[in-house]
Amino acid sequence: MRLRPDDDIYRARLVYLGPPGYTLPIQLPYAQYGLFILLVPVYMLIHYLFTRQVEPVPAWEIALAMVTTSFIWRHVDPDRPARTVIRTALTDWRGARGASGEEVRAPRLVARRVTIREKIR
Question: What digits encode the pLDDT tens for the residues 42-66?
Answer without folding.
Answer: 999 999 999 999 899 999 999 999 9
